[in-house]
Model the fold of this input.
Amino acid sequence: MQVRLAEHLGMCFGVRDAIDLALDLTSQGPLTILGDLVHNPDVVAQIDAAGAVRVQRPEDIGTPSVLLTAHGVADRVRLELRQRGLAVHDATCPLVIRAHRALARLAAEGRHVVVIGQPKHVEVRGLVGDFDEYTIVQNEADLDYLAERIERQPDLRLGVVAQTTQPLERVQELIEAMRRRLPNTDIRFIDTVCQPTKDRQQALRDLAAETDVVIVVGGPESNNSRKLVELARSLGRPAYLVTSAEELRPEWFINCSLVGLTAGTSTPDAIIGEVQAWLEKH
Ligand code: SF4
Done:
């Protein structure tokens, strides 16, 4: 069985920089990480082994230093932490900061802010966390709420951004559905899907076109890894998400001569290498 690697795959610069910063800070003294630094169990284990404490809520921080993850937080959370006297280290990815700024610009124009993404995702919570009023759109059904608001307030203008790891095609579908549903509403969309996500999705399209089966290496909690699996399947390719080589099953590759390999933005190169070696051996 031959293996073809996606042209763009694996860890993005935002995650790589966040891990480097976490390891550097843990070598200097006690550190708490607010939230999951990355959605990859091996990397999390590595950071735990370096001595960092992980908490999900600001009130549980018990060290003088705290690290914010690449997913970002609302400004009000950052401010609260500083007011508590904590040394706040910030690993927020520059492309997440760009999404925050885009949303702030739209709000400054007097628009109702809308985020296309997963309502519970930490990045989305951070994006909307500084607004008292906002709407999160995950699917077409969520447009009902916006339609009701516009009925009550017909001059409402909308400012829309997307979670950085959403598939661009899906975001565009939802924007079109929004424009169809609200034909008289002024809607301004700023594309905040990050370039590494776009590159990985395009590379996967190319890979799926020429391979029999697609393997995505990534953690089960990794949004962008799951989206890569969904995209490959929507293109008609059997696709599987694995965290490591141990999860690969020989029966997935019956009658398969060319397997495509890609990985989410939080997957370390070493794990991709192990999966590749397993596939090449079979
Ligand atoms: S997926 Fe995109 S936005 Fe998120 S950390 Fe990586 S480069 Fe930054």
